[in-house]
Amino acid sequence: MTQGSYGEAWVFQALDEMGEKVDLTDATAAFFSMRLRATGAVKFSRKTAEVGNGTYTLPDGSIRSFTPADGVLIYRPNAGDSDADVPGAFEGLFEYTLPAGPVRKPGLGYLDINIQPAF
Q1: Are 1 and 8 in contact, with CB atoms under 8 Å apart?
Q2: Taking burial as the number of CB atoms within 10 A of a residue's CB, which of 8, 43, 91, 106 is the most buried?
Q3: For residues 50 and 117, what is the distance between their CA atoms, to the nearest angstrom?
Q4: How many helices and strands, by DSSP H and E, does the chain display?
């Protein structure tokens, strides 16, 4: 994405250790955090995200429908989320809450977010 842009949803499918989608039907909350990869400086922490439940236009322009059973987490960047002091490589992390407690995903690594300079 370009520095200062927002409005296009970031979509992530939570998978378990076997690569199967995680059923988020019982999820009570979802959050998204982002930090600068090189330094670990936090850009923002635990902004409200959502469990996919409806029809969405994805970043590639395709239209998909999800239910909570599909395990899809969605974060809609707000103004300022991509206004990084310095454009660069960031990493994102989703977490969600189930009746048994909070869960942080992705278990196999962070989401790569690259913010290019605006001109």
Answers
A1: yes
A2: 43
A3: 28
A4: 0, 10
| 30-39, 48-57, 72-81: range with lowest mean pLDDT | 72-81
Is residue 89 within 8 A of residue 7, CB to CB? The reply is: no
The rounded mean pLDDT for the chain is 84
79: Cβ contacts below 8 Å, ≥ 6 apart: 6
Q: Is the pTM of this model over 0.85?
A: no
**Amino acid identity for residue 1 in this structure:** M
Q: Indicate whether 112 pLDDT > 90.
A: no
Separation between Cα atoms, residue 19 and residue 27, nearest integer Å: 19
pLDDT tens for 94-103 read 999 989 888 8
CB contact set of 8 (below 8 Å; sequence gap of 6+): 1, 59, 77
Q: Which residues of 100-110 are buried (b: 16+ CB within 10 A; e: fewer)?
A: eeebebeeeeb
